[in-house]
Amino acid sequence: MMHLNETAVTISQLARKLGVSKGTIAYHLNVLREAGMVRVVKRRTVRGGTEQYYTVAARKILLGERPTSTAPLFGAVAAEIDTAEEVLVLVHRIMNLTDAQAQRLIASLNDAGHNVDDTDDDHEPRYGMVVGLYRYPAQP
């Protein structure tokens, strides 16, 4: 089954796969786009109209102040990484930072995670990215 996180898809493609009307798909994609969860990655003219290709905007999941468990999230990420053709970089690091350093790092990580111009060429290799910063528990 085709999913938005696997490839860019059109309203018509999703409607066919899901057996739902194009109007229903268009409505829900618009809601998701306004929420920043999906984005248009490609447009092309077809029979006098414009066809748009949608994909997930980012897999940014805000866990809130006290998540009950991050295990399902990181289990899914680990399973995805396990199927990767090649892991280009994977870093886990514990560090001491001032509040100002943490804020600069947060800004840099947000920039890295959100401000990459994806190519419109579906024949180019696909890459996954996980970005995060969390406050480590205080030492006793």
Report the sheet-strand fraction: 5-15%
- Count of individual helical segments: 4
Number of domains: 2
Helix content: 25-40%
Give the uncertain stretches in residue-range form.
none
Write the H/E string, N to C.
HHEEHH
Tell me the structural class.
alpha+beta
Distance between the termini: 49 Å
Total beta strand runs: 2
Identify the strand order in the major beta sheet: 1-2
What does the overall shape look like? elongated
Radius of gyration: 19 Å
Mean pLDDT: 80
Sheet having the most strands: 2 strands, antiparallel
Explain the overall architecture.
The chain is an alpha+beta fold and 140 residues long. It folds into 2 domains: 1-57, Winged helix-like DNA-binding domain superfamily/Winged helix DNA-binding domain (Arc Repressor Mutant, subunit A, Orthogonal Bundle); 66-140, no CATH class. The protein is built from 4 helices and 2 strands. It has a two-stranded antiparallel ribbon with strand order 1-2. A hairpin with a 2-residue loop joins strand 1 (38-46) and strand 2. Helix 1 (11-18) packs across helix 2 (22-34). The longest helix is centred in the C-terminal third of the chain and has 16 residues, at 99-114. It starts with 10 loop residues before the first helix and ends in a 26-residue tail after the last helix. 6% of the residues are buried. The model has no long low-confidence stretch (mean pLDDT 80).
